Amino acid sequence: MFVENQILITLNNKSDNLTVIDFFCGAGGFSEGFRQMGFEIKYGYDYWKPAVDTFNHNFNLECEVKNILDFKTSIEEIDNLPNTDVIIGSPPCVSFSSSNKSGTADKSLGVDLTETFLRVVAVKKHQPNSTLKAWFMENVVNSKRYLQTTYTFKDLGLEEWAKKHKIGANNVAIDLYDNTTIINSADYGSIQSRKRVISGEIIKKKKLVIPKPTHQQKESQLSLPLYNSISLIKGNFPSPFEKKSTAKIKDIQYKIEIEKDKITDHFYDTGVYEIEWKFSKYWKTNHPFMGKMSFPENENKPSRTITATKIANSRESIIYKSEVKRKGDGEFRLPTVREAAIIMGFPITYQFIGGENNKWRLVGNAVCCSVSRAFAKIVLDELKIKHEDELQVATEPNLKGVLNLNNYSLKTFNNPPIKNKGSRFRRHPIKEGNLTVTLSNYDIEKGGKATGKWLTSIQYGTGKGFPIQHIEDGYYKTLESIISKYPSGKLFIKIINNGFSEKIGNATQLQEMYEVQKSNNTILEPTELVDEVKRIIDKIDIEEPQFIQNGTIVFESKKIIPTKQLFALYAINKISSTANSN
After folding, report:
1. Domain end point (choices 341, 373, 392)
2. Are residues 446 and 567 in the same domain?
3. Chain centroid to CA 77: how far?
4. Do 177 and 79 belong to one domain?
5. Does the pLDDT at position 284 exceed 50?
6. Is there a contact between 364 and 50 (Cβ–Cβ < 8 Å)?
7. Which range of residues forms the domain containing residue 131?
8. How far apart are the first and last CA of the chain?
9. What is the CATH number of the domain that holds 117?
């Protein structure tokens, strides 16, 4: 049942413990792993108050909100920092993340913050009588593309400081090239597959020492325990829908147990609206150019990466089948904040300060505790400092001042989300033959805003930059003679023109229905129209699976395509043509 077979003891700080300061401390995941190995956390720096409040609450400190960029130009600010044995930091990953504005976001702030952190490390490492024994930095994998492989003192704005200490300004202050690696948190016992870049150095060794994995995926054939999966939580932790109780509940990752009613942020309904989970399902299983994902989550594997945003209608959403038997609204749910925190490796006694959205951000931005603990252990091992097997973990939660999300009640689904005015629409019924036939309300090739017209297009290939063929309204009439050659094609045309086409509103109606995410009694909103096309095609027994173009060229960039796509093109073009002509 337990991820780790280790004894837990009550937190204590000894005077001879190695000390740590944490930059961009967030909720404290990086620090928590070090604390579990007996390090003393001296201070945490962050510009976001909920993070500082959470850090103070769990580490019994009085840290203040601090902009890390204050250390960019002021040596005095750096000198005023406590001299510790270890410096850790996790610069904000949002500007580096490839999911942020599809990877096109400005990376300059991320670079600025990261280089400021490296500037602090450089001063503390190279100052006279330095006490620094190790430093570590965590970030998303994409950050490697935007950072230098080495930094001189001059690069870090420390030219005058280096001169004062008789160090060459062009000497290497920080080497990232030989001291950076990519790790997967699942390799260290996390219930999550989360790949991150770790840079750092054991000063004495003049290099980054990478901890050996403690777990393996099934295919690795190593003599290690297998990756921990979501099923560990589902099988050994209470459902969010259980009643309040004083029964003892064991932490599935640490040998502690607390009363059930002391478990915070878990016993509440995270069910999502049908229109939300249907969008998520579509983008996971039918994305135009990305691979297929499980819907709902595959509970026999580690969780996918916990993100900082609580969202239910995207490809990155983590969605479970609800334990409550409901159809439609509430049939699926998001993880609770507590489930997400367990996946990140936090003990069930760890608390997060703020409302639900803040708690999600705190958890999703954290460093996995199993990873930070592995690097804390490597520091002790490399410095040949003896340590006990016991982990320093809080055995009781501090609930003072904590806004508990628990309400022990079912959600009422009476306020469905709506889209913004003029929201863009894009959807295809089938992804097959390395192409899609798409209905949209904007030019996919050029981008931009919704046009007020509905468009039919064909996308060839499964990556960005693929060829796009635009189809004019009324083209479905040209396809009738081709499709009619199939016995099933005649039936298909009959269904589309007798029953289905009557469900198509005009262009304005489709846009309005899409924005409110709701069909009316006789007309379907565009999402439902495209889904209905897929259902019709799936029910028809198509005799010839491939359409070989001889004579009339329909698909300009392919000669042989799935016959289903020919049928899809007819139906999608019927939708756009009908909508635009009404």
Report:
1. 392
2. yes
3. 34
4. yes
5. yes
6. no
7. 8-229+357-392
8. 62
9. 3.40.50.150
Q: Which of 520, 498, 500 is nearest to 510 (CA)?
A: 520
Q: Tell the residue number behind the tokens 């499964």, with chain if given.
A: 462
Collapse the DSSP code of 226 into the 3-class scheme (helix H, G, I; strand E, B; otherwise coil) and give the result: strand
For the residues 347-364, what does the mean pLDDT come to? 97
CA distances from residue 145 to 19, 102, 116 in whole angstroms, order as listed: 32, 15, 17
For residue 387, give every residue at least 6 positions away whose Cβ sits within 8 Å of its Cβ, in sequence order, or none: 37, 38, 377, 380
pLDDT bracket for residue 409 (50, 70, 90): very high
Residue 331 lies in a domain: no
Q: What is the DSSP letter of 403?
A: -
> What distances in angstroms separate CA 120 from CA 23, 132, 142, 225, 279, one per listed residue?
10, 11, 23, 39, 45
Identify the bridge partners of residue 183 per DSSP, sorted by sequence position.
196
The strand ranges marked E within 24-141 are 40-45, 86-89, 134-139
Q: Is 63 a catalytic residue?
A: no
Same structural domain, 16 and 147: yes
User: What is each CA distance from 297 to 234, 285, 416, 546, in whole angstroms?
Assistant: 12, 12, 23, 33
Q: Same structural domain for residues 362 and 473? A: no
The reply to whether 371 and 461 lie within a common domain is: no
Residue 327 lies in a domain: no
68 phi, psi to nearest 5 deg: -60, -25
Radius of gyration of the chain (CA): 28
Task: Please state the rounded mean pLDDT for residues 287-292.
Answer: 83
Specify whether 12 is located in the same domain as 58.
yes
- The Cα–Cα gap between 331 and 274 comes to 7
State whether 501 and 379 are in the same domain. no
pTM of the model: 0.89
C-beta separation of 62 from 53 below 8 A: no
Q: How far apart are CA 454 and CA 578, in angstroms?
A: 9
Count: domains in the chain: 2
In a domain, residue 107? The reply is yes
Q: pLDDT by residue (tens digit) across 201-237?
A: 999 999 999 999 999 998 887 889 999 999 999 999 9
Beta strands in 262-329 (DSSP E): 320-321
Q: 451 and 383 share a domain? A: no
Structure tokens at 225: 């325990």
* Residue 391 in tokens: 């982990």
What six digits make up the tokens of 148?
């230098």
**Domain termination residue (choose one: 343, 374, 392):** 392
3-state SS track over 338-374: HHHHHHCCCCCCCCCCCCHHHHHHHHHCCCCHHHHHH
Contacts of 30 (CB under 8 A, 6+ apart): 22, 88, 89, 90, 136, 138, 366, 367, 372
Q: Are 332 and 322 in contact (CB under 8 A)?
A: yes
DSSP for residue 499: I
Query: 360, 310 in Cβ contact below 8 A?
Result: yes
Point out the catalytic residue in the list 25, 93, 368, 369: 93
CB 444 within 8 A of CB 438: yes
Query: Which amino acid, one-letter code, is at 332?
Result: F
- Quote the CA–CA distance of 121 and 116 in Å, as a whole number: 9
Establish if 407 belongs to a structural domain: no
Residue 435's DSSP bridge partners are: 432, 460
